[in-house]
Write a structure and sequence with these properties.
Number of helices of chain A: 13
Radius of gyration of chain B: 26 Å
Number of strands of chain B: 8
Helix content of chain B: 40-55%
Largest sheet of chain B: 3 strands, antiparallel
Strand order of the largest sheet of chain B: 6-5-7
Distance between the termini of chain A: 30 Å
Helix content of chain A: under 10%
Oligomer: heterodimer
Number of strands of chain A: 63
Number of helices of chain B: 18
Shape of chain B: globular
Structural class of chain B: mainly alpha
Strand content of chain B: 5-15%
Amino acid sequence: MKFYVPDVCHEKHGTAYKKILLIMKLTIVLMIAAFMEVSASSYAQKIALSTKQITFEDLFRQIRRQTGYNILWDAEILKDAKPVDIQVTNASVEEVLQKSFANQPFTYTIRQNTVVVIRKPETTIVVKGRVTDINKQPLPGVTVRLKGSQIGTATHSDGTYAINITGTEGVLSFEYMGYTTKEVPISGQTIIDVQLEQTSSQLNEVVVAYGRQTSRDIVGSVAKLSSVDIKDQPTGTFAERLEGKLPGTQVAQTTGRPGQGMDLRIRGAVSLSSNVRPLVVVDGQPMLGDPDNINNINPDEIESFSVLKDASSTALYGSRAANGVIMITTKRGKPGATQISFNSYYGISSLMRELIPPVMNATQLATYMKGFYEDKIKYEGYTGGIPAVYQNPEQYGAGTDWFNVLTRNAPVQNYSLSITSGGEKSSFSVVGGYFNQEGILKNTGYKRFSLRVNGDINLGKSVKVGFGVAPSMQLEHNNRQGVGFNVDGQRAIFASASMMPTMGSPYNPDGSLALGISGFTNQFVWANPLRQLLETKDDANRLRVLANVFTEIKLVDHLTFRTSGSADIGNMTRNRFIPSTSIGGFNALPIENPPPGNNTALGEALNNNDYAWLNENTLNYQNHFGNDHSLQVLGGFTLQRSTGFASDMVGRDFPDNSVPYLSAATRFTTNTSSFNAWTLMSFLGRVNYSYKDRYLLQASVRRDGSSRFGDNHKWGTFPSIGAGWVASDEAFLKHVPSLSLLKIRASYGLTGMNEIGNYTTAASIGNANYTFSGGLSPGKVQNSLSNTNLAWERNKQLDIGFDLGLFDDRISFTYDYYNKLTSGLLFVVPVPQSSGFSSVQDNLGDISQWGHEFTLNTKNLTGAFKWNTSFNISFNRNIVKRIGLNNISFAGTPTTSLNEFTDYRTLVGKPVGQFYGYIFDGIFKNQAEADAGPKYYGTGSTTLSQAGTVRFKDLNGDGKITFPEDQTVIGDPNPKFIFGFSNTFQYKNFDLNIAMSGTYGNKLKNGMEESTYNLDGVFNGPPELLNRWRSETDPGDGRVARTLANTTAAYRTDNTLFIHDASHLTINNIALGYTFKKFRTPYIKSLRVYTSVQNVYIFTSYPGNPEVSAGGLAFVNQQGQDLGAYPLQRTFTFGLNLGL
Amino acid sequence: MKKITYLIIVMLSLVQLSCKKFLDETNPNNVTLNSYFKTENDFNLAVSGAYSQLRGLYNNKSAWTMGEMRSDNTHYDYKSSDQAVATTNRYAVADFLDDKYNNQTPAKWNSGFNAVSAANVIIDHIDDITLSDASRNSILGQAKFIRALVYFDLVRYYGGLPIYPHAPLSREETYIPRSSVQDVYNLIIADATDAAAKLGATTFPQTGRATKGAALTLLGDVYVTTKRYAQAEAALKQVITMGYSLFQNYGDAFQLANKNGIESVFEIQFNTSLAIPQANTAASVYNFLPRMVNTLVVTGVSFNSITDVGGFNTPTQDLISAYESGDQRLDASIAMAEGTFNATDDFTATAVKSSVGYTAPAGKVGRPFPKKFLHAHAIGNQTNDDWPVYRYSEVLLLLAESLNEQGKSAEALPYLNLVRARAFGDASHNITTADQSALRATLLKERRVELAFENKRWLDLVRTNNAITVMNAFGAKQKAQYSYLQAGSYNVTQDRLLFPIPNAEILLNDKLTQNPGY
């Protein structure tokens, strides 16, 4: 006898109780039936009956009379009984009962001589099957439901499902977002395979500002990316996986620091002195796209990204939308079976050595230094002789490879477990993750523990409540940048490996760690970088909780009210200790037991407590009128307040290095605490109207009031309008069979920017202490100018584009043109310092930006061997139209007075942040050339040019090289275009993904070369330095000047020698996967294993990481400078995706 | 539905009511100007704040770069491997190669005007509340003293200056043209006169605040500079009745224990022992020592001064030679750091020796440094020395000068000889000549040695019209001595007597004009 073991987990929560009762009933019935088999035969009296339309009550009386069987029944059960016709002779009781009970809703059991009439147990069948798309790809998560019942399930990751159906009749419906719902009558079938068709590939739902829209209805420029598209990449942060995936979005690995280092910029966003990072909205919670803000999110929590680029799609974020918006949606539970998936990978990262320009080994450097002194003796009358340490260069051999000393192969591992479960009334999703990346620089690393719980509960028909809670803990070890200990940065620890004498060793002869590298005459001394890495403790621990709760109430038909509350709680503690043996660095040797002062150990305790809350209330009206008109109206009101408390304490004069906490410090150089806050109050509205689903119109407006702006301009209004036309639905194009979609879009709108400090409009009075009679005399002084007229930065943006689908969307193509005028740029305007102030925040400056974006997705092969390609390319341009008051060009900060060494400028008529300097024109090979050529004066009045010195182009033709006359724009850090290219292949169980991205035409200033091409013999440098000018008969390679004292500074003024083409093509990731289809155990539902390589290779002519940028992408006026960054790593990974 | 609509309307209207308040975030970390100057204490704090701005003017590398290194008193230790912009720009000031892009000379301008603005804010708001006459006079007197002191410093370095009628309240109000030198002096004289009238008499021990004596000394200096000698005499003669006198030994004037002492007229205050230490760093003796990996032997404190701190304001042999034999001020002012320079021009000190009759032993060099600013301190480059702005000996010398210039040369001698008798320990070196021009030269030289390293020398040379001849002659000697000096250096012309207006100021404020020659 087969026992039915029901799968409780498959059932929805609300029905579990019923099912348990059913199980109990069934068990009793089966037990009784078992007895019956034994006992029924003992009474064999026969019955004879011939009657029509007899009631059961009468029938039972007849049976009792003829056989002596007792019959028990419940009148309630017999209530629905139909009278029967029966004609038997010499029949057993059972025969009579079977005949008469056929097609009745009850049955019987016989125990000894008693017949009990009971309700008929419901018959149950199991319907199984597989749901695929038209390409026979399995569709996981499809909702399978018995129509008109509570019974439902969802497909597994291999597309299979099993559903228990009572009875053999009914209709199964298969629902999946973006696909046409299919209904199949069961009609007794037990295997039902279904193919679902996509409603249209262009009709996917996309998360937009304050809601969702189908792609077809969108009138703006929105790029969508699903988490599936960026799987398999062993990166801790999602931003790292976006490289090349989103058209118009530049993503750069500006540093290899674990857990950090990715920066985003949409449509080449520019501003003069403000942050240009996009706004990131996580499940409705807006936050600035600072790596610190978004790296807490476990990539496995993310369901999809949408990137909102044009004004019509971003204007609902008003004053924060100017730099684009990235919408992140996290996974939520769906009705259907509980799904458990486990994702994990383990990898090994190593230094991308090919990105490190070679430096002279010990023999080469000692040879260089020997020559340096030979020339000093020969040309400068130096009488000190060649220092002993350089007299025999060969003694050093290859020396120390500092890059090797500082780096290691480091593991990266990730574990992520997610459970989603859902029923009719409620659904949940839980994702827990652990990520651990050890840095390739020794003793650096990053760990993240994260959890996200999302839940949705339907309270009755018209009320829905949802929540999301995402706590995360990020532990950063020795990754942060800070005074006195920098893993990256100019002449900091990693950069020092390029400059430090290779003759030196990190170890003392006895094997202990040396204090520093010294003793090489004229070469700068250094703290021991290895010791600095190993001994320093810099732990930044961040706890972040994102939480939101919302209620949606269907007020009446078509009208929904939604209110939500979100909180963003962040806490960072940074605990640092740099022992005295690691204090120092460039040109400063640490001291083992220093006296009080700046050579002592440094301890710091820093605390940041940030808290933000947001309340959003929206009303949404949605209706169709007639067949052709569709209207959606959104209105809303939001309030947001963000606060931050910070405290910082720095202690020095530790008696020794044994206790790393501030309780041991005897002097405090910093002890501060501060609080700041901003508020934002907004009204928003949007109307979407479509006629015949093919003429689309959208208008939106947001009105923002911000605490950050002056009393006269607290409020700003940001309207937008957009229209779309689905031309392919017009009759005249319907008959073009190859055209599956043609949509033309246009939008125009105004967005704003508010990325300035919190209290810049008021004239503030700060502390300025003094002392009288030997005592402290607290003082105050006004330290800023007020500007009550400070207002929003305004961006007017036009976007025109079209979407094209051909051959059943096997080819889809999107094009967008945009033109953006940013006016009233928020700008720290320098004022004459004779006023007593240096600058004031003001709206002065205009930048024009425009660009073209192309996206092409093709399904090249669709058979057994599948091949899809996705390609996007974006051209962004910007021109500065006006700066500040007098169009004065400026460098890093507007107040920097410009000199020969300020290497970048923002100038009217050029893109922001141009490289500036002299044009390198070789080396004067001999004195005759120097006499005839333009002579370098710098700022002096005597020429420093002679045979062997650098030659620059004389731009004004006066025979002199002078600042500023002969300096000019020598490079543009803005790329001519950026692109991404990815290919996915699938054959049987194998899949292969190759993701590539790159930029073209951007220049990068290698600021490292200011040091490594220093000819003064103070740093190590590239082997090319050995080919310098030595004499007129030995002029070298014509690129490297001589080492003569006083002439070398010219060689490292900013000139084209340090400007390099940073065009590159990066193979970001190659991943090969294998999906198992059959399992011996029922516990595994799906399994895929893969191996991938991250940062496979970077094709570039740039000597280093071509994406490095000292200021990241966040600030445009100092982009594209390589000052030495945490090196990039290549990671080989093995991973698995397991479904349970 | 209706209920909900009403509810929303009520909610929205409540929200509207609280709109203004919700968007009003005030800075809790700083007071704003609008809510300040409500109590007398606010003014007192602002006065202390204005004094602290003077540190920018005197405790700043530009102060000694432009005031002393520009002159024949000091030079620098050339280090060929340090071609840092700040270093070469500082060299350029000393060598008369600086141009309007020089990044060392704007600091004086910028910090000076910070102090002017701090004083202006106080003066602008003084009538906001009712103060007692005593308080009002004290506050206004100090503010005006500070404003006069700063304008007097700046006008001598830069020429005509923008005069702000009040502290600017908006960007538009920051664009002010230069006034004539005469107008600037008129303002200085008015302010200093007003300060002298309002400030209380000097009492000992002094607190470090400006006093009537300080204001009158300033006024006397201004009058001497503008050649109004009779008025100078009148002002300075008041000062000598106020109880000031000279310490017995020259060196005592700079002892930490004698801060704000009997000889002090006005000095910039520092104190490293406070809970919030107020250290002298940018004008500490460390800047004036040779670059050393470890300064222990010289300063008693280990400190690495290689990177950018050391190697400037080195006393010249010309200055050392200016001290007459027997002048105790040489030993008190200058000492010799003895040791060796290595191949990269960094110094290792083995001893500190007296500069009197010094000759270096074989294999070593003696490198002079301004010893008068070297006193006990705990942390390298954080010294406790006040910066002397006016000392009583200068009052005496100014008075002597004002008398001599009026032809009352004999009358000048006692004041001059007070200074000399203290310097030599007795009257044996007293000056007896009553020849006006001889005495003029004597006074200039006396100021040179008495006030060495106090940033007076360059201004004295300019004021007495000696800068062009003295510095060209000095330059010829320098070029003969130092091969690294460029051929075009020390080309001292009339234009070189003023420094350029910082180029950024010219760019930002089109109402400004540049000084000739830049």
